[in-house]
Design goal:
This protein has 281 residues and is an alpha/beta fold. It contains 11 helices and 7 strands. It has a domain of 186 residues: 3-Layer(aba) Sandwich (Rossmann fold). Helix content is 42%, strand content 12%. It has a 5-stranded parallel beta sheet with strand order 5-4-1-6-7, with helices on both faces. Strands 2-3 form a two-stranded antiparallel sheet.
């Protein structure tokens, strides 16, 4: 999931106000409206971004999703006395909030761009989704593992890890693994493996590696303790995301809501994201 920065936002807004002032006819005596400090009042921000950033409804739904996830986690921990279970979670718009990036893009009248997205990731300015990091800490405290399976580039894992830790994630490689995407392993370039294992979406491969205990990304360069923790078969007990394609074997086109609904709160936790997603295609 993909999801410009605060300083850029201020610059863009100031530039727009300045340009508007300079372009006004000299003979005009009409009073220009006072500039507002609220960028969402400009009328250029998409409703989905506004709702995500400002609505009480979004915060309620996010908090309830993680409250449900925590209840399920507690039930799982009561029956698991081993440490061979893992919660798999998406990152963007599931644990971390990139809506400022989307807001500034809306104000500029542009869409998602890989270059500006990379700059955003490097800046490490994503915020926290309500309730997310209480849940992250609860997983670790319960003796479980958390695998963050993200469509951020693998090359940007150091910046993403630092951003997550700054927001409250434990800096513990034996309990938490960050699995970024590798374009060399996508369906177009790795068709034989996709066919062999029947991957439905671009996260299914990484879930298989976790289940089989061979997700080397989890321990490479992170020491013996991380390898001891992750180099073993693991049971995926819960999946958390903002997109149905964050779930094993599911695509947007093939999703059957009634079937997925039976798993919500038990195997799956779904957060709302009106800004972007596989539903756009």
């Amino acid at each position: 999931m993909r999801p410009l920065i605060a300083s850029l936002s201020s610059f863009v807004l100031l530039s727009l106000v300045t340009a508007s002032t300079l372009a006004a006819p000299a003979a005009s005596t009409s009073q220009a409206p006072a500039p507002t400090s609220d960028p969402l009042a400009s009328g250029t921000v998409q409703n989905g971004t506004k709702w995500f950033r400002k609505s009480a409804e979004y915060r309620i739904l996010a908090l309830e999703a993680f409250r449900s996830a925590t209840r399920r986690l507690e039930a799982i921990a009561e029956t698991r006395y081993d440490r061979n279970w893992v919660v798999v979670s998406d990152a963007d718009e599931t644990l971390i909030d990139n809506s400022l990036y989307n807001q500034v893009n809306d104000q500029l009248g542009v869409g998602f761009d890989p270059k500006t997205w990379d700059e955003w990731v490097v800046k490490q300015q994503a915020g926290a989704i309500p309730g997310a990091f209480d849940f992250v800490r609860a997983v670790v405290d319960a003796g479980g593992k958390l695998a963050i399976v993200t469509n951020r580039e693998r090359a940007r894992e150091p910046e993403t890890w630092a951003n997550l830790v700054a927001l409250g994630m434990p800096d513990d490689r034996s309990a938490i693994c960050l699995l970024g995407i590798d374009a060399a392993l996508d369906k177009k370039t790795n068709t034989e493996e996709w066919a062999k294992y029947g991957y439905a979406n671009d996260k299914d491969r990484r879930r298989r590696l976790l289940r089989e205990g061979i997700a080397q990304q989890c321990w490479k360069d992170h020491g013996w303790a991380a390898r001891h923790a992750w180099n073993r078969p693991l049971d995926i007990v819960l999946e958390v995301g903002d997109n149905v394609q964050d779930f094993a074997g599911v695509t947007q086109a093939g999703a059957v809501p009634e079937q997925l609904l039976r798993k919500i709160g038990r195997r799956l936790i779904l957060l709302p994201n009106p800004m972007y997603g596989s539903w756009e295609k």
